[in-house]
């Protein structure tokens, strides 16, 4: 038997199909947005690996553990896939309801050149200011003049200390791969990245100590990998002072401690 559907019925069916699709679309999008991912590994409720990416919690995320299922509430840049680089992310533990705000690990970058003791240029064109520390100026400029007035040292001495700090940083990172860690603010008003800089190595801590330009290096340990914490190393070696600019004060206590240690042991510019 042949069923004949007139044009009016066809139009009404099309309208009904479109209506059903519109009603289902938000549900499908929501289901996509709450796709769960397994926490592949975790460390001290602060470091999480999800989808092969590293996330560092801004505050300790209790009740989020290895093998838990989580879904992302937000990732920046917006709508970036979970396997893509990001700046920040917020995820929620399915079982416990714990919400965790994190910095994302942007990966590693090559240092193209060192500009001065606390500024470097990456191969992708970004300029990075090492936050929490301040080195003497290596060239004559307004800041060198201000530093001279504050410290009572002449400009030639200021510039010499700045050149030593620049040389030290070059030996540590120029041409090497580094990773960045951010504080509350990611960029300054000039668009430069504000970061704590790390150089990762897979050697033992003792072997790393023999390879560094100065024995007074500062290491961190993360999942068996030792890293030079560059900002801290410059202070500990006596080439930089702590610089407190709120709200980026994550390591200010550490930098103050290392600064006093450098002075007491007459390292770097305190020689």
Quick synopsis:
The protein is of the alpha+beta class.
General description of the model:
- This protein has 271 residues and is α+β, with helices and mostly antiparallel strands.
- It folds into two domains: 34-104, no CATH class; 108-270, OB fold (Dihydrolipoamide Acetyltransferase, E2P).
- The chain is 31% helix and 30% strand.
- It contains six helices and 15 strands.
- The protein has helices at 7-33, 142-151, 155-173, 205-211, 230-236, 252-264, and strands spanning 37-43, 47-50, 53-57, 69-76, 88-93, 99-104, 108-116, 119-122, 127-130, 133-134, 177-181, 193-201, 219-222, 225-229, 241-242.
- Helix 5 (230-236) runs parallel beside helix 6.
- The longest helix is centred in the N-terminal third of the chain and has 27 residues, at 7-33.
Query: Into which percentage range does the β-strand content fall?
Result: 25-35%
Kindly report the oligomeric state of this protein.
Answer: single chain
Q: Going across the biggest sheet, name each strand in turn.
A: 1-2-3-6-5-4
Q: For the terminal residues, how far apart are their CA atoms?
A: 102 Å
Rough shape? elongated
The CATH class of the largest domain is Mainly Beta
The ordered H/E elements are: HEEEEEEEEEEHHEEHEEHEH
Largest sheet: 6 strands, antiparallel, barrel
Question: What fraction, in percent, of the residue positions are helical?
Answer: 25-40%
CATH T-level topology of the largest domain:
OB fold (Dihydrolipoamide Acetyltransferase, E2P)
The appropriate CATH architecture of the largest domain is Beta Barrel
Tally of contiguous helical segments = 6
Low-confidence stretches: 27-33
Query: How many β-strand runs?
Result: 15
Query: How confident overall, as mean pLDDT?
Result: 79
Structural class: alpha+beta
Radius of gyration: 26 Å
In total, the number of domains comes to 2
């Amino acid at each position: 038997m042949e069923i004949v559907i007139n044009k009016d019925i066809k139009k009404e069916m099309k309208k009904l199909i479109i209506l059903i699709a519109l009603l289902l679309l938000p549900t499908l999008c929501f289901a996509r947005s709450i796709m769960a991912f397994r926490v592949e590994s975790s460390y001290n409720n602060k470091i999480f690996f999800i989808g092969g990416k590293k996330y560092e919690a801004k505050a300790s995320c209790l009740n989020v553990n290895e093998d838990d299922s989580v879904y992302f509430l937000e990732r920046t840049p917006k709508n970036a896939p979970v396997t893509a680089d990001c700046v920040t992310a917020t995820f929620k533990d399915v079982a416990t309801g714990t919400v965790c705000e994190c910095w994302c690990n942007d990966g590693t970058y090559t240092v193209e050149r060192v500009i001065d003791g606390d500024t470097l240029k990456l191969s992708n064109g970004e300029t990075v200011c090492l936050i929490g520390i301040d080195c003497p100026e290596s060239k004559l400029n307004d800041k060198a003049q201000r530093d001279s007035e504050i410290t009572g040292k002449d400009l030639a001495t200021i510039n010499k200390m700045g050149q030593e700090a620049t040389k030290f940083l070059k030996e540590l990172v120029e041409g090497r791969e580094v990773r960045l860690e951010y504080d509350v603010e990611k960029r300054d008003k000039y668009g430069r990245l504000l970061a704590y800089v790390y150089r990762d190595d897979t050697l033992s801590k003792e072997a790393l100590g023999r390879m560094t330009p100065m024995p007074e290096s500062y290491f961190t340990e993360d999942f068996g990998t030792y890293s030079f914490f560059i900002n801290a190393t410059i202070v500990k070696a006596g080439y930089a002072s702590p610089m407190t600019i709120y709200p980026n004060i994550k390591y200010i206590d550490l930098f103050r401690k290392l600064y006093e240690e450098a002075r007491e042991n007459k390292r770097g510019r305190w020689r």
